[in-house]
Amino acid sequence: MQGLMQGQPLLISSLISFADRYHGGTEIVSRTIEGPIHRYSYRDAHKRARRLANALRRLGVQEADRIGTLAWNGFRHFEIYYAVSGMGAVCHTINPRLFPEQIAYIANHAEDRYVFFDLTFAPLVAKLRPHCPGVKGWVAMTDRAHLPKELPDALCFEELVAAESDDFDWPELDEDAASSLCYTSGTTGNPKGVLYSHRSTVLHSYGAALPDAMKLSAQDVVLPVVPMFHANAWGLAYACPLVGAKLVFPGAALDGKSVYELFEGEKVTFSGGVPTVWLALLQYMAEGNRRFSTLKRTVIGGSACPPAMIRAFEQDHGVEVLHAWGMTEMSPLGTVCQLKAVHQGKSLDDRLAVKSKQGRAIFGVELKIVDSAGKELPWDGKAFGDLMVRGPWIAKGYFKGEGGDPLRGGWFPTGDVATIDEEGYIQITDRSKDVIKSGGEWISSIELENVAVAHPAVAEAAVIGVRHPKWDERPLLVVQKKPGAAVTREELLAYYQDKVAKWWIPDDVVFVEALPHTATGKLLKTKLRQDFETHKLPTG
Ligand code: ADP
Question: The domain spanning residue 516 has which CATH number?
C-alpha cells in the first residue's frame, strides 16, 4: 500500500523561494572584489537569480548544460548557484587555486558551456581561454565599469541581469536530476567529477542544519570562510536559506584581519573553514589581544583540527568548535562532533578529548570500518580500519564513469583510516596513503602532528614516513616555526615523551620556511614525501 502524501520533488529552487517568502528581509552581505561591501536581502537575491535564469535561457543554456564558475564567496556566486541549478542546468564550481592545466582539463572534461569568473581570475581566464574551445562565453562577474582590460569581449554579469525581467517560474524538475558538479582535487591522477542532484543537495541541507550537526537557525549570522568553489562551502550556501540565516560572504580577503573585522562588523555567530584559515585568525587575535564579541560556534574540518586549536577557541575565546569530517564525494558532510548527554558534567579536558574526534554520523550517513579483507571491525575506539560510507548524499560513481565503479558492496571507500568508539564517534587516524608503516605496525601521522602543534613554538607541522632500512618507514617531523620563535630538534623530540608510545616518536625533525598545501588547504604530503625521499634518518 502506498502512502497518501504529496510528492513535491526536492529542488534547490525551493530553498531560495522559501528564503524569499519567509525570510525575505534577511540580509546577505558580501565583501566585493571591486571594493565596497554589498548588502541586499534574500528577496533581492531571489529576484536577481530569476533574472539570471532568464539571461541563461537567452544565451541558449539548456537543461543539463554545465556552467562553470571561478569565483570567491559572494552574492553573484550565490545567484549563480540558484539560477543555474534552479533552471535545470548544472552549476560547476571550479577551484581557482588549481594549476591552469588542471582547470582547463576540468572545464573541458565537464564540457562547460559558459564560465563565470570573478575579476581576480581575469588573468587566469586569459590564459585558459585558448585551451577551452568548447566554452561559448566567459562572463565577468562585475559591472561594465570594471570589465577586465585583458578580456575586452567578456560578457558582463550586471548587463546580462539588467536586461532581463524577474518573471521566471522555476521548472518542476526531476529531483534526481543533476544540479551541480565539483571535481575532487586528485592529489594523484586526474581530478574526478562528483555530480550532485537536487534531491541529494536538499537532503544534505536538512542534515547540515540539524541541532547535532551545524545547529543553524534564523537567529544565526553565518560567514562561510570555506569556499563555494569547493564542496559547496560545506553546504552552507544551501542550508542558510533553508533556515533563513543571514549570510556574510568574505570575498577574496581571507587573512586574519579581514575575517575578524567582518565577524565583528556583521555580528557573525557561526563560521566554518579549514584549520589553516583559523591558524591565521587565531594568530591575529593573539597579537592584538582581540576578542570575539558575537561568534558562538565554528565548524572546522577538511583536515584534522588539532586539539590545541580546539582548546584555544573554547578556553580562550568561549567559541564552540564543531570538528567535522567529510569529503567532496559526500556533499561533503559525514560527521560532526557534538557532545551527547553522557558528556555533560565532564571536565573540560574530557570534553576536549571527545571534541578532538571527528564526531558522529548525521542521520543519512551510514559508517563502518573494515579490515583489509573487508570484515567489519568493532566500535571500541581502538580497532582501526578503512572507513566506508553510504547514504543518499554520497556519490555512487564519478562523472562520465571516470575511474570505474568506486563502490565496494554498495559502500563508498573513503580512503581514510579511522576508529569508531562505543558512542559512535569516529576518529580519523590518517588518509590510508599517509599512514606510516613501521615494522608492520601503523603510526598515525595526524596524532603526531597534533602533538607538535601544541608546542608553543610551532606554527604548523607535518609528519611523513621516510624509508628506513630496518623498520620500512619511520616518522619524520617537518615543522614551520611561529614567527620569531625558537625551538631545537632535541626539544621537540623530548616534547613527545609521555605523549605517545615510545616507538611512535619521530626519528628526526626538519625545519622549513613554509609547508606546502593543496588547493583546498590540506598539507601536501606527496610533495613533502618527494622533498624528503632521500632524507637520511640518524637512526637509519
Ligand atoms: P580533496 O581535497 O581530495 O578534494 P576533499 O576536500 O573531499 O578532498 O577532502 C576529503 C578528505 O579530507 C577526507 O577523506 C579526509 O582525508 C580529509 N578530512 C576532511 N575532514 C577531516 C577531518 N576533520 N579530520 C581529518 N581529515 C579530514
Answer: 3.30.300.30
pLDDT digits (tens, 9 = 90+) for 338-372: 999 999 999 999 999 999 999 999 999 999 999 99
* 490 found inside a domain: yes
360, 455: one domain:
no
Measured from the CB, is residue 184 less than 6 Å from ligand 1? yes
pLDDT at 186: 62
Alpha helix stretches (DSSP H) within 211-326: 236-243, 256-266, 275-287, 307-311, 317
d(CA 126, CA 446): 40
Does 449 lie in the same domain as 416? no
Kindly state whether residue 464 falls inside one of the protein's structural domains. Answer: yes
Nearest in space to 117 (alpha carbons), one of 77, 144, 162: 77
pLDDT interval class at 187 (50, 70, 90): low
Distance of CA 327 from the midpoint of ligand 1 (Å): 5
Query: What confidence tens digit (pLDDT) does each residue in 11-60 have?
Result: 999 999 999 999 999 999 999 999 999 999 999 999 999 999 999 999 99
The C-alpha cell at 276 is 589553516
Does residue 328 have its Cβ closer than 6 Å to ligand 1? yes
**pLDDT for position 203:** 98
C-alpha cell at 302: 577538511
* Residue 225 placed within a domain: no
Supply the pLDDT for residue 188: 62
- Maximum CA pair distance of the chain? 72
Q: Kindly report, residue by residue over 483-501, the tens digit of the pLDDT.
A: 999 999 999 999 999 999 9
Tell me, using a 6 A CB cutoff, whether residue 325 lines ligand 1: yes
CA of 326 to the centre of ligand 1 (A): 6
Chain-centroid distance of CA 367 in Å reads 20
101 and 118, same structural domain? Answer: yes
Joined grid coordinates for residue 335 = 560527521
| pLDDT classification of 519: cutoffs 50, 70, 90 | confident
Same domain, 92 and 191: yes
* CATH classification of the domain holding 372: 3.40.50.12780
298 is catalytic: no
358 within ligand 1 shell (Cβ under 6 A)? yes
Would strands 436-438 and 426-431 be described as parallel, antiparallel, or unpaired? unpaired
186 Cα nearest atom in ligand 1: 3
Contacts of 125 (CB under 8 A, 6+ apart): 70, 115, 117, 138, 151, 154
Q: Mutate which of 234, 416, 447 to test ligand 1's pocket (most atoms within 8 Å of Cβ)?
A: 416
Judgement on whether residues 241 and 289 belong to the same structural domain of the protein: no
Q: Looking at the structure, tell me whether residues 294 and 274 fall in a common domain.
A: yes
Q: Which among 428, 435, 448, 517 is the best mutation to test ligand 1's pocket, defined by most ligand atoms within 8 Å of the CB?
A: 428
Catalytic residue among 164, 329, 447, 460: 329
The active-site residue, picked from 172, 437, 488, 539, is 437
**C-alpha 332 – ligand 1 centre gap (Å):** 9
Catalytic residue among 26, 93, 184, 520: 184
Structurally, the chain folds into a number of domains equal to 3
Active site (annotated) includes residue 72: no
Are both 428 and 357 inside the same structural domain?
yes
At 70 the pLDDT is: 98
Domain membership flag for residue 7: no
Helices (H), ranges, 40-116: 42-58, 75-87, 100-110
Is 26 designated active site? no
Residue 449 bears catalytic tag: no
Domain around 499: 436-531
